[in-house]
Amino acid sequence: MSRIDELRELLHRANRAYYVDAAPFMSDAEFDRLLAELAALEAAHPERFDPNSPTQRVGGEPSTGFVQVTHRVPMMSVDNTYSTDDLRAWWDRCEKALGHSFAAVADPKVDGVAISIRYEHGRLVQAATRGDGTTGDDVTRNIRAIDAVPLVLAAPEGAALPPVLEVRGEIFMPNASFERINDERRRAGEPEFMNARNSTAGTLKSLDPAVVRSRGLSFVAHGVGHVEDVTLDGRPVATYLDFLRALRTLGIPVPGTEVRCTSADECVAAIERFGAARADLAYAVDGMVVKVDAFADRAALGVTAKSPRWAVAFKYPAERKPTVLRSIAWQVGKGGTLTPRATMDPVVIAGTKVQHATLHNIDEIHRKDLRIGDTVVVEKAGEIIPQVVEVDRAKRLADALPVEPPAACPSCGEPVTKEGPKLFCTNAACPEQFRERLKWFVGRNQMDIDGLGEKIVDQLLDAGLVRGFADVFRLDPARVAELTSESVTKSGKRVVRKIGGKTAESIVAGAEQAKGRGMARLLESLGIRHMGTASAKAFARAYPDIDALRTASPEDLMQIHDIGEVTAPSIHADLHSPAMDRTLRELRDTGVSMASTSFQARVASAPDTPSDAFFAGKTVVLTGELESLDRRTATERLEALGAKVTGSVSKNTHLVIAGPGAGSKLAKATELGIEVWDEARLLRALAEG
Q1: Cα(first)–Cα(last) distance of the chain, in Å?
Q2: Which of 130, 193, 331, 463 could form a disulfide with 114 if both were Cys (CB 3.0 to 4.6 A apart)?
Q3: What is the pTM of this model?
Q4: Do 507 and 525 lie in a common domain?
Q5: Separation in Å, CA 269 to CA 87, 92, 95, 264
Q6: Of residues 109, 380, 422, 537, which has the active-site annotation?
Q7: Is 380 a catalytic residue?
Q8: Does residue 297 register a pLDDT over 80?
């Protein structure tokens, strides 16, 4: 066995041990080290490319859209019930239709997004959403980015892998991931996701698998699609419970909390037991699905036009409890958004203590007529986010205080403005706003300064080493290395750690490299309201540098696509504020580039531009690893020359840039006779402009 095969097999086993067996045998750091070793070996041996390698969890380039998949076995929805009487009535109907007693399996109704994953001879070949039950979206690339989904299956010794195994299951966001993402969004001044299911659905529809991977989604199997020759202990699988056991032997995660019941009474008892324990799970569950166990009995019961007769979902009511609203604090995000946060008397809901809840905005507070001192009803939206549902006006006290919007920012004291339902602090020098802006500024998709995570940003600010964006580019590595942080171990021991010289040098080197990111990335990084990725790129294509952009009037800005009557004056005002004057001057003094690498796109489209400019109007695909350019920089430079960069190869593709590790896209380009360049040739063409 080669080292590549050895590492692939070891890392697949490590994923199974973590997600299926709950018995990890290596640390996260060791896993990452071995994964990096495998990636390096695969880059050196591109002929060994395998789409199911552990390194291929993220394929690199975003998709341009989703194609439709027809389900071989329809993905039907399950009828819901909210009462045990209805559940008993369902049981009686099944028993009467079958003409004999039967067994059923109750397993958790995970609050996620239904998915169908197809394996052929043990290798993942396709994943699709439910869609309308007959046709769904092909999300294979995104599903590959989820660690809990095995890319290859491992049969027990002496057993064969099934030729076809299509499992139905749920993609979900664990509580810890959901809370982390909402914490990040809250600090950035962005609206929090209301529940884990919606954020999971939105994540799966992302065109970039890297976004999917960053969200920390997981997977659990709970159903049967199109299967061929699935066995357990050498015999055909005839029941659902045995099917789950077979999946586990192959390395596919299953709930592990399923219960076999032989009567309606047993089933009701199982549901009640699980209802009392579900708050301790690491993910949201809103009920239990009860399914007839024997596949022969399922076939006899059949289906209706929409749902199987052999299954029913019991849904638990959301737990609500009263408490008293004591105060409202206003938190400041990176864009200056002030978000109200309620503090209430502590109350236990769904197994956890709740004392705080977001109130979204001042209009929502007024709509619900919330007052300080009110008795309010609180529930956990999606079993995770505490939410104030309503006010118990019958218990309102005479001295309950109406909530007035703050006239001044709680962080800096500057005046607050209102736009729509939101309140804003417009002071770019606001301390709390700057803290969140700085974390955004150095982030991966903005200036991308290696080593500067949120904790280190807090340390730099608390130590007074950074007071403005430009200070990031003046850091003394010796002073950074001496900064310390405290943590507490599980045993209660306090541990003090220094950042250290190696990390400090990496941060300084990353800052130096970031100086050349260019106008579009800089604009996006500054935290200007209404300035997103698309608008920053549009401005960079229209103006040669930031100085030229600042000479434009609001009316000029409105000529840019998607810049309207509200956003143009706001962006213009932010670009000309005294704080922005100072910020740009200081950044320029440190050597940060203000020039646009994309301005040539406008020049390329001008009437006096030669029509034979090579990249103008060409559709280009990047695949494999690029060594001298990161993929985003390469994309921006190609777009600056008039190219359209896409994620898939088709007959409309003009050029493919292939680096080490290029796989199916390179093969398709060769098949279609499309011109293929290596990175060296691309660099020469870019240098020529």
Answers
A1: 47
A2: 130
A3: 0.51
A4: no
A5: 12, 16, 19, 9
A6: 109
A7: no
A8: yes
